[in-house]
Amino acid sequence: AESWVIMVTAQTPTNIAVIKYWGKRDEKLILPVNDSISVTLDPVHLCTTTTVAVSPSFAQDRMWLNGKEISLSGGRYQNCLREIRARACDVEDKERGIKISKKDWEKLHVHIASYNNFPTAAGLASSAAGFACLVFALAKLMNAKEDNSELSAIARQGSGSACRSLFGGFVKWKMGKVEDGSDSLAVQVVDEKHWDDLVIIIAVVSSRQKETSSTTGMRETVETSLLLQHRAKEIVPKRIVQMEESIKNRNFASFAHLTCADSNQFHAVCMDTCPPIFYMNDTSHRIISCVEKWNRSVGTPQVAYTFDAGPNAVLIAHNRKAAAQLLQKLLFYFPPNSDTELNSYVLGDKSILK
Ligand code: PMV
Questions:
Q1: N or C end: fewer C-beta atoms under 10 angstroms in the chain?
Q2: Where does the record place a coiled coil (predicted)?
């Protein structure tokens, strides 16, 4: 029997939304009720590394996450594998005399090994980096010719927010119009060099896993919240335009205002859900008050905050000086291992947009 292996390794950072995605109009295809905008972190602190391998000796598709085998039977993995396989092209390794034709990919199986360089249980980065990395690595292995936006529409079917991790810098996920979801994809707003004095600090408030998954939470919000309807139709479309402007002009005051307001509205929509969903805790609320007070006392915003489906704070500082002052404040008001539970700070390497 033939025995060879071809491998591809890719590394993908996670992303943090500054205009939030919350609510699906189609659960199976993962189509959102509104556009969203995110910033992709640098690949140092919160990223996934995935190796995909193909060999005629593999009897089935298998995957290991942080060294432990996991099932690939879920619809999300199956969607990504099926969509990339459908786009596979001829692959040739002349040196080793290996040739895989387009139709061979239907019979060949892959092994996938994925590692997160952050504690998976910390409820920090969602599956964003994971599915983006998986789809990108598979596309390279199978020589798919699709560009990153087209790949983002496949990663989207693994996890919505994953589509935004196919690009660096600031990224917009366009909700799209068509029923099959082919126009619901990510585009780059500006690249990672455009606004490279921003610094992101993630304050780990609690490493416990969230109680309500984003899938369940979104479903309940879509079914019960009237505020979500108003947000998706009236508020977000205007904010998306304003946010793109702020980013392009590097207008931090406007950027910070929109980021904080949108995080707060996302959590208000959670509260407006029946039964209500609480992702933030007392420490999260205290961090918000602390940042608001500081920004107000200086007169112009120094730091923006945003919270996803958990209590951890993502703090975006205007520059290194503001970041240093922020760290001082966090250490003073939330000393590590005190009863406030704030147990660590993750600081972006040089900047978030390296
Ligand atoms: O892609 P999901 O299902 O993990 O949803 C992510 C939702 C938020 O992180 C709360 C917001 C966002 O836009 O990333």
A1: N
A2: none
Question: Which parts of 181-230 are beta strand (E)?
Answer: 186-190, 199-204
Nearest to 310 by CA among 224, 202, 199: 202
Of 190, 212, 232, the residue at which a domain comes to its end is: 190
Residue 180's H or E segment, with its range, is none
> Which run of H or E residues covers position 37?
strand 36-40
164 lines ligand 1 (CB under 6 A): no
Q: How far is the CA of 322 from the centre of ligand 1 (A)?
A: 27
pLDDT digits (tens, 9 = 90+) for 125-146: 668 999 999 999 999 999 999 9
Tokens found for residue 143: 């020589």
Give mean pLDDT, residues 312-323. Answer: 95
* 75/59 Cα distance (integer angstroms): 20
With a 6 Å cutoff on the Cβ, whether 214 touches ligand 1 is yes
Task: Indicate if ipTM > 0.90.
Answer: yes
Q: How is residue 129 written in tokens?
A: 């980096």
Whether ligand 1 lies within 6 angstroms of the CB of 175 is answered as no
Pair type for strands 109-116 and 62-65: parallel
CA distance 226 to 274: 11
What pLDDT does 314 receive?
Answer: 94
Same-domain status, 204 and 142: no
pLDDT for position 284? 94
Is residue 351 over pLDDT 80? no
Atom of ligand 1 at shortest range from CA of 126: 4
What is the CATH classification number for the domain harbouring 282?
3.30.70.890
Question: What is the residue range of 268's domain?
Answer: 199-347
CATH code, 179: 3.30.230.10
pTM as predicted:
0.94
Residue nearest atom 4 in ligand 1 by C-alpha distance: 126
- Is residue 184 a contact partner of residue 153, using CB atoms and an 8 Å limit? yes
